[in-house]
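Here is a tokenized protein:
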Amino acid sequence: MDIAVIIMIPAAFIADYNIWHPSAPQGLTIAAFIYIFAILEYINYFHIQLSYDNRSDINSLKQTKRFKQASLSKDFKRLKNLIAEAGIFGEHNEHT
């Protein structure tokens, strides 16, 4: 997980807790739900696929007993490999 996410989500939750808890306990429940949902969505988009919406995906999950890698994670890995192969950010190519 990205370090910014690890730091920012709990910090934002604590800030909301301090603002909403004294006056409206139901606000704390809503805030907790939103932050938990945000963490799950972050994991779903950038690490592993948590949502399965058709029968073939569910059957595949049952057979392999493993979650799929998230599409964005695959895309970032491919991009990283392309950049490494091209040497875009690594070596300085001087045209002389």
